[in-house]
Amino acid sequence: MSTPLFPLAFGSEDWRLLSGLPVGFLFGFVLERGGFGNARRLAAQFYLRDMTVFKVMFTAILTAMMGLFGLEAAGLVDRSHLWINPTFLPAQAVGGFLLGVGFILSGLCPGTAVVSMASGRLDALVALLGIVVGIAGFAVGVDLFPSLEALYQAGTGQVSLLPDALGVPPLVLGLAILGVAVLAFLGAEKVETRFQGHGSPVEGTPSPRPRAEFAVAAALGAAGVLALVAARPPSPPPPPAVEPVAPLELAEALIRREAGLLILDLRGESAETERVPGAHPVRREEAAGLLAQIPAGSTVVIYDGDAAPTEVPPDWPRLLRYRGLQGGWEGWKREVLTPMPASHFSLEEQGRVARQNQISAYFSGASPAPPAAATAPPPAVITGGATPKKKGGGC
Amino acid sequence: MKGPRYAMVVDTRTCVGCAACVIGCKAENDTPDGYSRDWIHSLVAGEFPRLRMTIESRRCNHCEKAPCVSVCPTGASHVGPGGTVQVDPEKCSGCKACIAACPYGARYVDPRSGAVDKCTFCWHRLEAGKTTTSCQEICPTQSIVFGDLNDPESEVSRLLKTRKWYVLQPDAGTAPKHFYLE
Amino acid sequence: MKRRTFIRLGSAGAIGAATVSGLTTNWFGFYESRGKDPQTEGERVVPSFCELCFWKCGILVHVREGRVTKIKGNPKDPLSNGHLCPRGAGGAGILYDPDRLKKPLIRRSKRGGDAFEDVSWDAALDVVAENFERIKARWGAGALALFSHGYGGNWMKHLFRAYGSPNIAAPSYAQCRGPRDVGFDLTFGWGVGSPENTDIAHTRCLVLVGSHLGENMHNTQVQEFAQAIRRGATIIVVDPRFSVAAGKSHEWLPIRPGTDLALLLAWMHVLVEEGWYDKDYVEKYAFGFEQLQAHLRPYTPEWAYPRTGLDPEQIRRTARMMGGARPAVLVHPGRRVTWYGNDTQRSRAIAILNALLGSWGRKGGFFIPSALEIPPYEYPGYVDREVAPADRSEPSQYPLADEVLAQGLCQATIPTSLGDSRIKGWMVYGSNLPLTLPNPREVFRAVQELEFLVTVDILPSEIVGWSDVVLPESTYLERCDELLAPPWRVPYVAVRQEVVPPMYESRPGWWIARELGKRIGLPDFFPWADSMEYAKTRLEKAGLDCHTLQREGVILGAPQPIYFEEGAPAVFYTPSGKIELYSQRLAAHGFDPIPTWHDEEVEDPPPGYYRLLFGRSPVHSFGRTTNNRLLGQVMEENAVWVNRRVAEQWGLADGDRVYLQNQDGVRSSFSAPVKVTERIHPDAVYLVHGFGRKARGLSFAFGKGIDDAELITRYKTDPIMGGTGMNVNYVTFLRPSQVEPASGETGTVDTAAQSSGETGMMGEKTTPGGGAAATGTAGGEVTA
Amino acid sequence: MTELESGRNHLLIDPSLHVWGWQIALYLFLGGIVAGIMVFTGLRFLGRTPRPPSLAMALIPWFAPLLLSLGMLFLWLDLEHPFNAWRFYMVFQVSSPMSWGAWILLAVYPSSVALAWVSTREALGGPLGPRDGPWSSLWLWLTRRLAGVEGWLRAHLRGLALSNLLLGSALGIYTGILLGTMAARPLWNSPLLGPLFLVSGMSSAAAFMLLYPLSERERVFLGRTDLTLILVEMGLLFLWMVGLASAGAASQSALALVTGGPFTASFWSFVVAVGLVVPLVAEWVELRHGQVPGRSAAVLVLIGGFALRWILVFAGQASGWSSEMALM
What we know:
By secondary structure, chain A is mainly α. Helices cover about 50% and strands about 5% of the residues of chain A. Among the domains of chain C are: about 1-35; about 175-370 and about 575-590, Dimethylsulfoxide Reductase, domain 2 (3-Layer(aba) Sandwich); about 605-780, Barwin-like endoglucanases. In chain C, about 30% of the residues lie in helices and about 15% in strands. In chain C, a hairpin with an 8-residue loop joins β1 and β2 (about 60-65).
C-alpha cells in the first residue's frame, strides 16, 4: 500500500505503514475544504439538491484511474505491489446497502465522519461511535451466528477487475467511463438547478459551478492522456541476470545438498544422455513453464553444450536466482569428471587433489575397486554352539 | 548473615532439556493444568552446520533484591526463610504487579485460587526435613543442585567456586540466586 | 437466651473478631506470611517399576487418600538410581486418563464400523475363548498370532505358548532394534539387549550414530551420558539433525541421510591405515583382520566425502579422537536402527568399529552384564512347536532373523494369489499396530481379512476400534507383573506391584491370561492364585525373600566382574569363537561378509520432496503417551522440522501449519506447525513420532500434529533379518488452503479418510474402542 | 539464525504470563484525568481573586470522584482475586508504588468530594436539592448537619485546595511511577514516566473540561494551559526516548517497539500525531487568531492521552530483559 510513496526497502513495515498518516491528513484536509465535513451538504446529495458529492466522487474515480494508468505506463508503479480488495460480490452488495442506509441516516460516510468530527461537529462523533459499535457488533455477531460467516465469505475472493469481468479492453472502458462522467456532470447540473428550487441552497456550496464547457474540455484532455497511455505499451522489463558458477563449486554444492538448487540442461531431451546429476533436460522455450512451478528464491543453474548462457529469456520468473555453469557440459566434463594427475602436486596439496579426484570419481560413476575380502575366504574355525541371546526390550 | 541462604545451580553442560524437572514439579506441587513453575528454555544460534545450543532449566530466581517483593502492595510476596522468595496465597489480591515486575517470567496466576504462584524451592519439602527440591531429586542428568550459599561445604558453593557460571539478566539488578554453569 | 445477653455476646464477638483481624495485620507485627503445602507427600509409598517406556526403572509411588499423587525414582534401583525421566514422573497421567477403557467391549457391527457394546468379563472372555478354540480346531494353533509390546505381554506369550502357536511377535524387533542385535550377534556372538550393556559412564569417547540420547530418554543411559560429559568425555555425534546430543558434542557430523555406512567404513579405513586400532586386542580376539584391512583400502575419507557430504578432514580428525581414547571408547549401537534396509550391515560396521577399538568387554566400552538366576515356575511343558512361524513365505527368507517378524505375520494374514492366508486371528496386546508397523494400509487390509481380533489395552487407540473384543487392562500402577531380572552391571530383581486397586472394570494381564487359559482347557498352565503368589514361588526357589522385595522394590545380587581386565570371561558365541570381523555366517548365506558400500542403495529425494525422518521427544513414548494429559501439557503436538533455507524456498514461516504428502500421494490426516530451523539437513524433515492420532476416543490427542506412520507407505526390508527400513519415504508440503474445504479441520479428516479408504471408518468412530498403549516401535532414532 | 524454544508456554502467546489488559490502561487514563481535574480545581481555589466560575466549571470537580470510581471499578475488575482487595489496606508497603497508590486513592476521595461540594455550593449559592416532596425534609436535615462541616471547609479552603493540588499531583505521578519502577520492563523503567503521566493527565483533564460549556475566559485559560502542557509532554516524551536510546541493549530493544517494532504505527499516529502535534497546531492557530478553543482539539488530546496509556501498557509488557520477551 505504501509502495508508491516509499520504496519497499524503506524502514520496517511499521514505518511504511506510517506513510498513511500524511496521506490521510492531506485527504482529510481536502475533504474538509471541499465541505465534506458538513452532513447537511452530504445529505443534500440524496435530495438531489446538491450534486457535489456525486461530481467529486466521479472526478476521484477518473483521477485515480488515469493516475494509475499513467504512473504504470511511466514505470513508476508496479501494479503487483498494489493491494486491491478481493471481490466478494454478495457480501459487498449487502455491505454497500447497509453503508448507504447509514450514510443517509447520519449524512456522513466513514471518511467524512472523521473529517466532520475534526471540524468539531458532535453529530459526527456520534456517527463515528456508531461505526465502531457496528464493527464490534458484527465481529461479535459472526461469532454468535456462524451462518453470517457464509454471507461475508460469499463471492470469489479473487481480485476481479472491471475490464476482465466485462471482457472490455481497458482503454475502451476508460473512455466509456469518461463519457459517462461528462454526461453525468451535465446531468447533475440540470438536476441541481431543478431541485434547488424546492429548498434553500446548502450553505457553503461554492457558487461558481463547474461549467459544462469546462467539463467537456477536461474530458477531452483526459481522453488524450488515456489514448497516449494506451498507445504506449509498457516497456518490457530487463531480462533476469545470470551469474556464473564454476563446475567444481556446483559439484560441492550438490554434495552439500544445498537447498533449493535446480539444474536445467538446456540441450534438451535429444542431447546425449550424460548430464550433470539431477539436471532436468529441457529445451529453452519450454523452460518457462517448468520454472513457473519452482518456489521463489530457488537457485536455477543452467547450462548448455559448451557455454554458460549469459542471459535468460525475459519471460522466465524474476524471483528465481539464475546461475550459468561455466563452460557448460564441456566445462563440467573437463573440471569435474576428469581426475587430476596426482604427481603434479606438492605433498601439501595431495589432500585437495585426493578430494577432487574422489568428487570426480563419484560424479563419473567410477566406484572404488571391488572389495578384496569378498574373494578371499578365511579359514573356517567352526566352534559352533548356541548363542546366548540377550533378548527382549521394547523400542 | 546468619542462617542458610538457599540457591540453585543448573549445569547447562549436562542438562538435556528432557523436562523431567517440569513434570516432576507439576506432580510434586500439584500445579494447575497448563501452568508450571519451571520450564525448559533452549537457544540455538548459528547457521547449519555450525550451531551452538544452550539448554537451561528455568524457574524463579529467588532474587536477593526481588522486585516482586518490593512491588507487592499487600505483602503477599515476601522474603521467606533461608532468603527464598515466597508468596502467601491468602494475602494475594492478584494485582499482578509482581508478574510485571519479574524479569524472568517466573510467575503466573493460579486460576484455581486467583493467587499468584511460582517456584518455592519446594519449601514444604525443606520444612519436612528433606534437603532436595523435587526437580533436583528427579533430574536424570543430575544437572540441578540446590543448597546453602552460606555453607562453604555445600555442593552449590563448591560448584560456584570451581566452575564458570552466569545468572540470567544480571543487568536487571535483581541479584538472582539461581546460577547456570557454563 | 435473653435479648440483653445476646447483644452482649454479639458485641463481645465483634470486638473479638476485630482484635483477631487486627492481630493478623502488619500493624500489630503479626502479619506472618506462609506458603502452601501442596499435600502430595504419600501416606503410603509403594515401590514398583515403570512401564512408560521399556527401560523399566524402579519407582516409588506416593499414594495419598487413595490417589496416586506423585511418582519418584527408587534410589535402590540400579536403573533409575532414584531419578526419573519426565515420562516416568508423569505416570499418573495414564492411570487417571479419563479416556481409559472402562469395560470389556464386544463389537456390534462391521469391523471398523466401531460400534461396541459393554459386556461383562464373563461374556467377553467366553467369546474370546470360543474363537481361540474354533481357530485351533479349524486351522490349527498356528493360525492365531500375538502382537505384544510391554511387560504385561509376558502373560499372553505364556498363554500362546501353552496354546501352541509360535506366532508371537513384538514390533520392537523388526521395526526397531532387531538389526542391531543381529549385527552385534554376528560380530561378537552377543546381542546388546535391553538395557544395553553400554558403559557410557566410564567412556572417554562416545560416538552416537543417529542415536539421540537426551531426546531418547532411556533413563540410565542419559544419566551415564551426563556423567560422561561431566568427566570430560569426547562426544561425537553423527546425525542429519542437530539433536540435543549434537548440542553437547565436540564434533557434529551433519551427514547426508542414508550414508552412515560410508562414514563408518571411512573411519575404519583411517583407524587401520594410520594404525590407531587396538592391535593386541584384534590379534587376540578377532577373526578376519587381513580381509578387513584389504577390504577397507579404497574407503578413504575423500571417498566418503561426496557420498556423506562430510569434510574428509573432520572424518580423519574424529577417527583419530576415537583411536586416541581406546579402549574406553564406545560407538553406540543405537536403538531404533531400522532405517534404510541395510541396517544389519551398518550395525555390523558399528560392531566392527568397536572391535577395532577394543571396546567390547572393556571399561568405557561394553561391559559384560550378569543377571540374577531366578528359576522358572514349573509348568507341564509347552506343546511342541510343530509349525514354523508364519512370518516368512519360505524358510530361506531372512535367514538370520532370530525373532518372529511382526510385519511378516501381518502379511501372512492377507491371502495371496498363491493361496489362503495362514493367520486367521490376532490377539494384540498393548501394541497399536497402525502406528507401529510400516504401511498402515497393509495393516488395515490384514485386519479386514481376520476372522477374529481381540485387543488387550488401556486406551481406545486406533487398533482397538477395529477389534471384535476389547479387554480393558489395568495400568502398571494397578497390577502385579512378572519379575524383572535383566542382565545388567549388577544382577538384580525388581517387582511390579499393585499400588492402587484397578479402576473401573479393568483387570491385570495375568488375570486375563489365566481366565482365558482356564476357558480353553489349559488350567494346568495357570496353577497360581495370582501373580504375587507366582512371584513368591519363583523367588523362594531362588532363595530370596518376597517381603523384602515388596518393601524395597529391588534385591541386588552379588556383583560380578564386568570387564575383561576384571576377570569377566572373554567368550564370543560366534562360529569361530572370536570376534568376527569377517562373518562366516553371512558369507555362508551369500551376504557381504564384511560390510560393503553400494552406491545404488541410497537414493535422493525427488525434487521438492524431503526425506521423512522421525524420532522421539523426551516427554513422550510415542503414541503410548500422547494422550497423557500430564505429559501433553509440555508437548501437545509435534512440529515439522524444516531447514531454514528450505522453508524460505517454500515461503514457510515458523508456526505456519502444513500437511505433508508422501511420494505415493498419501497425505497426512492432520496438519502440524512448521518449525523453521537450522538444526536439520536440507534433505530431510523431521517429526516426533506418535502424534496425529485418529482414534476419536483419545479425546486429548485426537487430531493433534502429524502421524509419520501413515506416511510410511514404503519400506526397505533388510534381506538378512527382515527388519523394515522406514526412513525411505519422502514428503512434500501442502498448505491448509490446498487441503481443507472451507469448513476447516473436521472436514479434512473426512477427506483424508476418503482418500485413504481405511481411515474413513475410523472417522465414524462413535464409542471408545480399546486401546492402547503402545505404539511401539516406529519411533526411534533418527538417523542418517 | 537464533532459535528460541521456551517450554514455559508458547513463546509469543504465553497466556499465563498475561499481566495487564485494557482495564489498567483505562484506569491509568481516568486516573490521569482525575489528577488533572484535582490540580486545576485546586489551582482555581488557590488563585488570589477567584472570579465566579461558570456553572460547568463549578460542577466539574465532581468528575474527580466519579471518574475515579469508574477507574477503580476497572482496576478492581482486573484483580484476579478481587475479594482480597481489602488486603491493600492492611499494610503499607513503602517500596510498592501500588501500595502508595492504594492509600493515595483513599485520601483522594474525601478531599475531592469536599472541594466539589464547596465549589458547587459556592456557585449555586442557595440551598441545593429538592425543596419539596418526600425527600425534602431528609435533605434539609442533611444540609443542616453538613452546614458545620461546610463551614469548617470554607474556613480551611486554601488548605483544602492545596490538598487537592498535592493529592492530584501525587495521583498523576503515581500512575506513572507504578509502571516506571518495573525494572523488568525496560520500556517503562524511566523516572520520566511519573512526570509524563502527570502532564499528560493534566492535558487530558484540560481537554476533558473543554468539552463542557465553560465561559470564554475559562476556555482560553484552559486552551493556553493545554498548549503549554502539550509542549511539556512532547519534551518529556522526547527525553524518555532519548533516555531509552542511550541506555543498555534491553532499553534499546524496548524502544524499538515504538520506533520500528509492532507498536510504531499506532504510537506515532495516535499518540504523537493525533494526540500531540495536531491539537498543538489546532490550539495554537485558534488562540493566535483570537478564537475560543473548540472541542475538536480537545477530543484529539483525549484520544492521544488514552492511546499513550494503552500503548505504553501493552508495549511495556512486550519489552523485557530476556530475549524471548523482546521478541514479542
